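Predict the holo structure. Ligand: magnesium ion.
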Amino acid sequence: MTVGIKQLISLDVFNHLLSLPVEFHTDQATGGVSRKVTRGTGALSSLSFFLTGNILPTVIEIGLVIAIFIKFFPPIFAAVFGVFVLVYVTFTVVVTNRRQKLLLETNKRDDKGSEQSIDALMNYETVKYFTNEDFESKRYQSTLEKWADTAIVSNKKGANLNMGQGLILTADLTALLALAVREYLNGAATLGDFVLITTYLNRVAIPLSFLGALYRSLKQSLANVDEMFKLMEVENDVVDKEGASELCCTKGHIQIKNVEFAYKKDRQILKGISIDIPSHTSVALVGASGSGKSTVSKLLLRLYDVDQGMVTIDGTDIRDITQTSLRNNIGVVAQDSILFNESIFKNIQYGKPDATKEEVYEAAKLASINELIEGLPQGYDTEVGERGVKLSGGEKQRVAIARMLLKNPPILLFDEATASLDTKSEQSIQEAIKTISKGGKTTIAIAHRLSTIVDFDKIVVLDKGKVIEEGTHEELLNSCGAYQKLWASQSGVGTANG
Ligand SMILES: Nc1ncnc2c1ncn2[C@@H]1O[C@H](COP(=O)(O)OP(=O)(O)O)[C@@H](O)[C@H]1O
Ligand SMILES: [Mg+2]
């Protein structure tokens, strides 16, 4: 039962987290989110365990004992007992609630610790380059200490609660026993009655202290579950419209019309950009680093929604298309390609999960990585490590290209995809890209090295979030503007044309 619940909820949370926009993930530290989920699902299991197995029988037991007291003993017994239950419950609830804030603070510090350790472990290379193991260790230690400080106070409060509950319980038992002794001495009760009373009292004391402890764990579990459900409540602001259409058999005519965009309100990134990318053509985006090229590609994929203007495909605003069908039609090789911790084969196959072996090999060949893979001792079964750390930058990039070629979508998007390759592999991949693009594809390439895009149908130069020039390579060179300067600086031929 509890395993089933944990499984269901874990899957639900996972699905929800994956569906959230990129923005959520860029703002959240993975370590903290993962802690919240672990604590939440763990708490859920214990909650369902409490609720199903223990509470009801205990409550019934207490009720029965009270009924017996009322029926068979003088009213004073029930009165004393009732007052006691009231005091006990009030005490438990008030103290537990006061402790709740502390619990939440402890959780927050627990998250922080997890965030820091995961961050350091994921960036272990940088830690080593700067020999900052000590620095990281001290930082983590200080966070752990802060966590321990609140955790200890919280535990102390818990212990005080237990002690208080014990005191109240004992006081009451003593009072009721004293009453019973008085009744016996008065001759109103027999020795048998006396024994009966003490037995009943014991029967009720144990479940009551159990309920007290239960309430405490219940509140704690609820706090943990609540934090997890807060994650579930994060709203997705990039959602499919009601009745959004499916994009299929696209001609790949992309228009970016007067688009303005800011990641955060206080910093405008794109300041009114218009780019027309006719179907089956190739367009290159060039410009200084930080000019907004990758941002344009993210808007095209609708990882973010534009603030002003619109992006259309075949004349339809992409906000009127389902995100799945939109992204199915676009193949991306990102600026810093990241692979999964699996074999090379699986990583390429990710582009089309049902691809056959032959298709995977074919894609690897097109991305000119087949020779390299076949030369490896384990061939296609070579594990690439977390995020692909066991491959060089260029190898990773080529696996990413193969993965995209396998998907074979009508729109291709390369974000500095060949930047980390040597000239020879770059040329062979450029050839491959050219061959594929000829088969009626729309190609968008963000390029740093201009030599790779000279024969593109159109080159768009961006600067600080604006289009400052556009045209073919020849046209741009002849207009003697920013592109011409960029070209000259890269080819090292001064300001001469060509
Ligand atoms: N997720 C983000 N949140 C806030 N700012 C961002 C984010 N991603 C990029 N930026 C900023 O937007 C600007 C444009 O970035 P980008 O489009 O990646 O430039 P590039 O032209 O080099 O690809 C940069 O100044 C960058 O700092
Ligand atoms: Mg970029």
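The two ends are 73 Å apart (CA to CA). The pocket of adenosine-5'-diphosphate (ligand 1) is lined by residues 26, 263-264, 269, 289-295 (CB under 6 Å).
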